[in-house]
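Module 6 notes. Inverse folding takes a fixed backbone as the condition and produces residue identities as the prediction. Think of it as a translation problem where the source language is geometry and the target language is the twenty amino acids. Below is one complete input and output pair. Work through it position by position during the lab.
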């Protein structure tokens, strides 16, 4: 076999000091944050050890690359001119879907299993597979998330739930009841409004058969090859949620027309489409006119997965940076031996650990939600806070990790390039940053018990580090009376996020490292958790400055 590492093929120079990419390592076992958290809960780890090993193999990492190098292709018609509205994928995509669905990552757990950390383990599964290939996490996540919404209509759940929870991946245009496994997408966003879905204009008209006919469009509909879509449309009683199958039980294609696939910055392996709903048959899910409330359960689960996905990106970017810095030399020493590089890497290690702990804690709260009201409240507010903070910080984190590889990090052959293009997405879909910050305020106002649950969680770490206690006092005082304006939402939610991360570090990390984390995030000055945390500025100055900067725009 040719040894490329010895500079095969060059007679002008030898190739050395060029580290290979990480391969043949166990993604699970090498991640002490995850291992220790599960170990501390007495959770069985065997399945995850096997998954971690499989994901670290060269061929699995290569499948992730191939699925992105060969993005999906839209096939609207067959050779005879019949509409087929199908998406064609590279075999690598199918192999990843088979693996991940087979591991149960798309399967919403049984209530009984939540006592055995089923959501938590499933979250770790998603965290691991996303590090190898993030795009296929989208249909996997939506299929998982669809189930609690579907359960609003038990008669529909009886038909569809076994397919959504199946561990079989069965791709293609087939009658749903004939398939060994089903996937589900979500269709809410329209051209005139995504965050504000009340602006939806797609209509749903009740027919004599009891089903509805949907007419309109969706501006973003990811995974359009799914077997069904949770879809919002206006019916006679207002915005309602519908399950819209892609193939009907008589074998005909439902009226969902794929217009085109989005040409995205990243997330290339995954198909995201624009669709028209041309009289598509839909089944009402939940109460008519209560569509937002019904679909919010799906959105909540997808938000948890965005948080997990962002933490996974950080972890994988860190793996790339550490691997490289341990093998690359500059100025006569390995990069990792340089003082300043250690400062950078250690900060990344702390940030990654705190973000992973947040994702784990929210997955654990999901397990407990059905049996413990406090945990349900913590989940409600905690996911909004955590998604906001971790998804906001992920792009900066990935850019910094990329820089650790120098120029080699900025070329497409490096996984850091793919991570970089993927990084902003979790902050945009399932509620962009402002929307999650405002959602946190909404939870505080409409459900004050969520504030109690958060404060009770944060109080568990009192008495260990003075600056933590001081910051907690400060925020507690601020939360009394809930006098928080929209202007300050990002600052407040960012700080709550930093406190939650600090608490989780105190609870789970090495005490010395937790102290460094707390000092650097909560110390002398809070600093700004993200952009958009300016102090109060008079309105005239605000408007004047924005106008001046927008001159001619
Ligand atoms: C790759 C990709 C795949 C997607 N897949 C799907 C899918 O499968 N199904 C689906 O339904 N959607 C999907 N989306 C759409 C996504 O959920 C929306 O883009 C997102 O919710 C934002 O909506 P919008 O694009 O209409 O932006 P807008 O709602 O116009 O928001 C623009 C900006 O304004 C901010 N903003 C909005 N309201 C306020 C406010 N009150 N105060 C302050 N700021 C505010 C937002 O935070 C955002 O930064 C996808 C998007 C992408 C990029």
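Target side of the pair, the amino acids:
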């Amino acid at each position: 076999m040719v040894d490329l590492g010895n500079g095969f093929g060059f007679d002008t120079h030898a190739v050395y000091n060029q580290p290979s990419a990480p391969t043949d390592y166990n993604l699970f076992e090498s991640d002490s944050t995850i291992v220790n958290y599960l170990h501390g809960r007495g959770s069985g780890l065997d399945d995850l050890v096997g998954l971690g090993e499989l994901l670290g193999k060269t061929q699995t990492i290569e499948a992730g690359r191939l699925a992105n190098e060969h993005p999906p292709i839209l096939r609207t018609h067959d050779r005879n001119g019949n509409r087929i509205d199908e998406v064609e994928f590279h075999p690598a995509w199918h192999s990843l879907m088979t693996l991940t669905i087979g591991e149960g990552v798309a399967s919403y757990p049984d209530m009984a299993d939540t006592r055995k950390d089923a959501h938590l383990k499933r979250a770790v599964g998603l965290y691991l597979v996303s590090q190898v290939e993030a795009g296929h996490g989208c249909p996997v996540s939506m299929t998982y998330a669809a189930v609690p919404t579907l359960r609003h209509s038990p008669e529909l759940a009886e038909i569809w739930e076994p397919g959504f929870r199946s561990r079989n991946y069965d791709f293609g245009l087939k009658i749903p009841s004939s398939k060994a496994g089903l996937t589900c997408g979500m269709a809410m966003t329209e051209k005139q409004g995504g965050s504000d879905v009340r602006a939806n204009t797609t209509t749903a008209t009740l027919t004599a058969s009891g089903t509805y006919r949907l007419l309109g469009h969706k501006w973003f509909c990811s995974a359009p090859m799914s077997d069904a879509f949770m879809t919002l449309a206006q019916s006679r009683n207002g915005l309602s949620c519908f399950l819209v199958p892609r193939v009907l039980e008589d074998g005909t294609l439902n009226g969902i027309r794929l217009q085109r696939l989005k040409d995205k910055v990243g997330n290339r392996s995954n198909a995201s489409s624009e669709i028209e709903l041309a009289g598509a048959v839909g089944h009402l899910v939940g109460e008519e006119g209560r569509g937002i409330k019904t679909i919010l359960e799906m959105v909540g689960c997808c938000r948890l997965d965005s948080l997990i996905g962002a933490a996974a990106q950080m972890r994988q970017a860190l793996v790339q940076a550490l691997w490289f810095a341990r093998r690359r030399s500059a100025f006569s020493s390995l990069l990792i031996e340089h003082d300043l590089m250690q400062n950078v890497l250690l900060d990344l290690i702390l940030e990654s650990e705190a973000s992973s702990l947040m994702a784990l804690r929210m997955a654990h709260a999901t397990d407990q939600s059905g049996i413990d009201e406090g945990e349900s409240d913590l989940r409600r507010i905690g996911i909004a806070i955590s998604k906001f903070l971790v998804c906001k910080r992920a792009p900066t984190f990935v850019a910094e990790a990329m820089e650790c590889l120098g120029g080699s990090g900025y070329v497409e052959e490096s996984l850091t390039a793919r991570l970089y293009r993927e990084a902003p997405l979790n902050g945009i879909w399932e509620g962009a940053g402002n929307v999650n910050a405002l959602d946190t305020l909404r939870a505080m106002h409409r459900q004050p018990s969520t504030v109690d649950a958060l404060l009770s969680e944060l109080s568990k770490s009192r008495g260990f580090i003075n600056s933590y206690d001081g910051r907690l006092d400060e925020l507690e005082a601020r939360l009394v009376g809930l006098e928080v304006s929209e202007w300050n939402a990002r600052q407040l939610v960012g700080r709550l996020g930093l406190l939650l991360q600090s608490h989780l570090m105190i609870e789970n990390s090495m005490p010395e490292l937790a102290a460094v984390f707390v000092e650097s995030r909560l110390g002398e000055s809070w600093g700004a958790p993200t952009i958009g945390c300016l102090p109060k500025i008079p309105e005239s100055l605000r408007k004047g400055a924005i106008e001046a900067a927008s001159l001619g725009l």
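Reference fact for the lab report: Residues 46-289 form a domain with the Butyryl-CoA Dehydrogenase, subunit A; domain 2 fold (CATH 2.40.110.20).
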